[in-house]
Each structure stands twice: as structure tokens, then as C-alpha cells.
Amino acid sequence: MRIYFTLLCSVFLLYCKAQPKPGAVLIAAGFTEPVDIVHAGDDRLFIVERTGKIKILFPDSSVTTFLDITSNVGSEGGEQGLLGLVFHPEYATNGYFYVNYTDLLGDTHISRFSVSGADPDVADPFSELNLIFLDQPAANHNGGDLNFGPDGYLYIFMGDGGGAGHNRSQQIIDNKFGKILRLDVDGGTPYTIPSDNPYVGIPGDDEIWAIGLRTPWRCNFDSLTGDLFLADVGSESWEEINVIKSDTAKFLTYGWKFKNGKMMRHG
Predict the structure, then answer these.
(1) What is the pTM of this model?
(2) Cα 36–chain centre separation
(3) Phi (first) and psi of residue 210, to 5 degrees
(4) Edge-to-edge, what's the strand order for the sheet holding 263-266?
């Protein structure tokens, strides 16, 4: 037994020594509180700064400012600011992109902006079209992410609004906090409701696609399967990951505020 154990240890040590050691390479510096990194289908990377700027990182490591809305963004609270960015699937032809930010009063705006017609590396700060406005009850739990799904719809990941003694995540009428919202931004101005959203035709806000979230921070669709991976920031010592399969027909509550800290897979 001792010889066998020693052999296993020797093999393990040889395996560990054979693995490459990870290292860090500085690509660019000088960003202020970067919270998100997105691409627009080309070789540029767009860096979202919480204080209200979006910067472009070029392949040669140079950096320029794409959008500056710091005069509109309130970032005093640690969970406030310019929190999310996504480019329209047809950005190359329509120049639209969408942001999630809190304003100087701490309220949430989901807005569409356009790239400048004169310079593809500069956005038009005066092109804002507001889709969603939410009067935030507290400074925390704003969520922040935005994504386009394989279905072409815009998915908005909203936190529960923070504060204490509430259960907004389970309320479905006149309450979009703690939800995933799903909008058709191509069907009308500023948007229309997908006909298969779960509360269409029954009591509940038609924009809602899923409920029961605390503060979904970063979420993404698998480009191969269409499955949605949803990271929901937990309370105290628990965090949560939800996996929503692309063929899921019915979307249930994700538990908050009754449950917290689990890995769920729907589908």
C-alpha cells in the first residue's frame, strides 16, 4: 500500500511539473473601474468604465474614448454607474448599441445609442433613445447586464432594487425588479413585446421573461448551444449560477427571495 501511494504521489508531482505556469501580460493600462468588456464583431474591444465612459482597445494596444456620458451617470454607490453594454446583432449596418446605467438620482436607464456617422470609433452622445426607466428604491442590487439572445431579442438582467424588507423579485405586476426582461427592439419604437413572453395575455408585466433574481451581474448565451448562463450575486456567503437550456419552454422563478445559493438547470 505504501509503495502504491508513493507511486501515485510521484505521478501527481510529475503531472504538476509538466503543466505550463500561467502568467499575466499587460495589454493596456489607465482604465477607471472597468466593469465589462464587449466586442462588436470585429477586432476592437470595448471597455466599459463604471464612471460613464466606453473606451476602445485596438489590436495595437492603443486606447480611445468611444462614448462619454459621465455627466449623465451617477456612480457614487459601489453598485451604481455605467454597468452594461451590448451591440445590436446588425450593428455593422444600423450602428445601434445598448447600455444600462444609473443616472445622477440613482435610477436605471436602458438606452440605445448610435455610432457617429462620420467616425466608426466614436459614438454620438446625443443619440440616446430610452427604452426602460426604473425609479430605483435603493443604491444597490442594480444588476446591469444586457445580451441579445439567439432569437434576436434583447435580454435585460435587472437586480431586485436593494434595500431591506422587500420581495420585489416575486412581484409581477408593475414591478420589473429582480427579473429578466425580454424585448423585441426591432418590432417598434422603442420596442415591442415578444408574443411568447410568459405574461402576455395574463396578469403580469409583459416585458418579464423570468423572475426570482437578486442581482444578476454577468450573464451570457453559449454561442454554440444557445444556453443561457446566469450568474446571480448571492446574499452573505452564497453565490448562484443558473443554466437555462435553449429549448426550455417554461420559465420558473429562480428562487429569490425564498432561496439563495444554488445551481439550477432548466430544460
Answers:
(1) 0.88
(2) 8
(3) -155, 155
(4) 216-221, 228-232, 240-244, 263-266
